[in-house]
Amino acid sequence: MYITPIAPAATLVVSCLTMFLVGTELFILSPLLPMLAVDFGVSPTLAGWCVTTFSLAYAATAPLLGYVADGIGRRRVLICSLLVLGAASLLTAAAPNLPWLIVARTFAGVAAAGVAPSIYALVAAAAPSDRRAAWLAFSVSGLLVSLPLGAAVGAEVGIILGWAWVFVALAALSLIFAQLNCCIWPYERRRAEAFEVPSDLLPRAVLLRRLMPTIMWSTSLYGVYTYLGTGLNSLAFSPGQVTRAILCYGCGAVAGALIGGRLADRLGTKFIAGASFAGLCGGLLLLRLALCGGVFVELALGLSSAVAQLFFPAQQAGLARDFPTHSGTVLAWNNSALFLGIALGSLIGGKAASVGGFDTTLAISAVVALAGCAINGIVVPLAGETELQRRNFGVSSHSANTRQSLMRWLRHVVQRGGQVWPR
């Protein structure tokens, strides 16, 4: 379903800023954890549960909210989720103890799970077919910019005014962006065409296979990023050097996402995703050599991050293309796969670091990226091959005929009766 935005330029800017808000909600707790631990009288490890519950709530509820958005309207779910996110931020600011904080961040994770997939689905539906990946990449860039910018600014505000005021500001921004998104996205009229593929006939086996590259990518990438600061400290990097290295990493990520969207539109989503996997493998090995030699570390970090971020907009554009009537649900599942890979990467990277140090983490993550390149080549179809892919993955001709008959019957009922679904 194509959605005509009221102002395309404003749509992209507001979508990017909304994702910046979601990313800041996700990344801000990491620099604020020492303050939270002191205020609540707990260890930083125990305070870190507020980060864990946010991520788990996001991963668990994103598919459900994506399904709801496909049913009742993505604009409606987006605005309601932003309002809930603002309320959760206020509850966070008012938290008197750690259990209250954990519950508030759980609600924030649920709300964020409704915001991000809805934004991605709306942008994918509004974008011209030949620029879909570029539009999605611009929206994703807001999430990436929040890593070096949003978290850093929030940390400074927390030091000066106190951590609670950070979440008061985020609550105010949530309300502002709810109003802006309400203005830029037109009301979605549910039409008969929206029911061409019933939800219970979503090819789950195909979807599961299509999400495997996302899991492999995030496992490889975040297995390294989670322990990047610790690994650099173990190699006698000063705090200033670590800060510069992470800044280069963040800048490379933003550049890679923006470039990746344009390349995916021109060269194909499957090709760019595979090239990203291969480049990530090579980049991690190059980073290992740079760390051993003690030279060009920032350059190697920036290059590996930029090449890695080519993947995500290409994967999203491919999913939106192959599942057009279920893009909200599918992109929500893709976000859950992303968070699952982050959790796996943290576990694998931590185990590798404890056994052989950060060099081992880099080597294992490179192997995971290489395996992801092979999986991407197997499970992702070329443009226009969706039905062939479904047959190859076990959807029988009998099932296809049954589905086509059901679709014809539904269209006939809608055309003759006109009362089954409101126009």
Features:
423 residues; globular; single chain; Growth Hormone, Chain: A; 18 helices; mainly alpha
Descriptive account of the structure:
This protein is an all-alpha fold and 423 residues long. It has two domains: 7-190, Up-down Bundle (Growth Hormone, Chain: A), CATH 1.20.1250; 206-396, MFS general substrate transporter like domains (Growth Hormone, Chain: A), CATH 1.20.1250. The chain is built from 18 helices and no strands. The longest helix has 30 residues, at 132-161. The protein is globular. The model is unreliable at 191-201, 386-403 and 417-423 (pLDDT under 50).
Helix content: over 70%
Mean of residue pLDDT?
A: 78
Question: Unreliable segments (pLDDT under 50, ≥5 consecutive)?
Answer: 191-201, 386-403, 417-423
How many helices does DSSP assign? 18
SS-based structural class?
Answer: mainly alpha
Count the strands?
Answer: 0
What would CATH call the architecture of the largest domain?
Answer: Up-down Bundle
CATH superfamily of the largest domain: MFS general substrate transporter like domains
The share of residues in extended strands comes to: under 5%
Number of domains: 2
Largest sheet: none
Radius of gyration: 22 Å
SSE string: HHHHHHHHHHHHHHHHHH
Question: What's the level 1 CATH class of the largest domain?
Answer: Mainly Alpha
N-end to C-end Cα span: 14 Å
